[in-house]
Amino acid sequence: MYSSLKEFVNFLESKGELERISEFTDPVLEIAEITDRVSKQPGGGKALLFENTGTPYPVLTNMMGSESRIKYALGLESFDEVSDIFHNLMGEVMQERSSFIDKLKLLPQLNEAAGWMPKKHKGTAPCQEVILFQPDINRLPVLKCWPEDGGRFVTLPLVHTKDPETGARNLGMYRMQVFTGDSTGMHWHRHKTGARHFAKSEDNRFPVVVALGGDPVYTYAATAPLPDGIDEYLLAGFLRKKAVSLVDCLTQPLQVPADCDFVIEGFVNKNELPVTEGPFGDHTGFYSLADLYPKFHITCISHRKDAIYPATLVGIPPQEDKYIALATEKIFLEPIKLTMVPELTDLYLPEEGVGHNIAIVKIDKSYPGQGIKVAHSLWGAGQMMFNKIIIVTDENIDIRDRKALMSVISKNYIPKRDTHFSRGPLDVLDHCAPQCGYGGKILIDATIKLPEEEGTAAAPAHAEKAIHFTHSPGDLKGLINVILDDAEPLDDTYASLWLWGSNCDPIRDSSFKDGLLVMDSKIKHKGVNGFTRDWPGKALSSIETIEAVDRKWESLGLGELIPSPSRKFSKELK
């Protein structure tokens, strides 16, 4: 649908969804601070094209940071379009067929799907119009987003690897810290497909190629929770109803979309020790701390003549990833229902839960214990394995209606009876888990209880609300009581929900008092009560950057001054 990122930019501008900024803006801290202010506006603000970056290339941020823009990026009028196609296609594939004629009826669907498979590009590829065989990534306007970041980071890399055994391609998104002109970090966690490909490789120079930009559907596909072995470019082709055209790289045996904006080719050396990467202000809203990751050696950089550098800002929610997660929530509900959880009727990942901390689930319940079964099924489903807090209901409500959800919890949930704990994988970026990548999970079962589930536990008589945020363990007014640090404002429910999911391990930090659930979401200190990890700070701007952007705001052409979101946490600003 879009032959380049520039074409998508022009489309967004025609829809009134983009602001061009001609004033010089520094890729170090300033672009991120401006983007943070705009992306936190109601509805996500507008996409921003920074045309004067001190480099030959403009920077595009917040390109999918609204419901309308993520739909434009995917070529959809409604997310229901994709759900309906998934439902019909998977229903046809999974249906038992008794006759040869019935099987022949499936051929049109299979033929259509075959047309979505990526194909080889013919002729000169736009992404190779300019070739730098002496590569220097410092020529690109790579952003430094937060003051305590370890350096500048590529934040929207489309990282290509191949399984050494099967040859299956994987497209992932792993941030890349710039070390030198020809080297970066490769921040792939051990559960990521790219890391598994690298671990299996016997080639000392494991090929890796990174693309940037092009049709925005590629960026979405790189984030999608597809099962292992499913080519992300098949998803892109499915969404576009058109095969992605791939071109051979110049120095590595991999292929990338011919229409992308930049291609960074290179390798990871199997014989080289990992290097220190980070810190980085991450999508959790906290810094992920420095750790050891492979070094990526760049062998070639190529790009379009009219290349635009795409970047995203992650940090304290809401950010652009809120809308990317919204698309995933809508698109992948139907496949989860058809393949794993048939009783699932709706799934909601609140933005305060940064994608994996909090999930609200609605089911069609027909037998005792079904809420527990659904929670464990979801904890075994792809990226949902990182979830920490699941609330399940079977009431006929809109689970995105906070008031209705709180009413259902108050009506159906008895803490001592309906709280269920488990352990399992957590996101490596979860800073409060007892061990990195492994910790507790909790189910709040707010379904209507069948006779077999009623038990003997009585509802606490003194709970005034479903969830209560407080600074004091003695101030228990909710069925669920979340204890926050004294410095955190209790009148900000959004921030309180974010801190609930971020700062507590459901097993270690939960207790019951007078029949009520108490969850400690305060800062944990290394060496105290057996906690052995370093605790990160919040990803906040600096006073110097905030004031610099305030001074130039009028010249940016973005209307009335938008105060820095970091000022909400003024006591922690440096």
Q: Give the number of helices.
A: 16
The total domain count is 3
Report the C-alpha radius of gyration, rounded: 24 Å
Biggest beta-sheet profile: 9 strands, antiparallel
Predict the CATH topology of the largest domain. Pnp Oxidase, Chain A
Gap from first CA to last CA: 45 Å
What is the mean predicted local confidence, pLDDT?
Answer: 91
- CATH class membership of the largest domain: Mainly Beta
Oligomer: single chain
Which structural class is indicated by helix and strand composition?
alpha+beta
Residues in helices, as a percent range:
25-40%
**Could you tell me the strand content as a percent range?**
15-25%
CATH homologous superfamily placement of the largest domain: Electron Transport, Fmn-binding Protein, Chain A
Gross geometry:
globular
- How many beta-strand runs? 29
Level-2 CATH architecture of the largest domain: Roll
Low-confidence stretches: 103-107
Compact description:
This protein is α+β, with helices and mostly antiparallel strands and 574 residues long. It contains 16 helices and 29 strands.
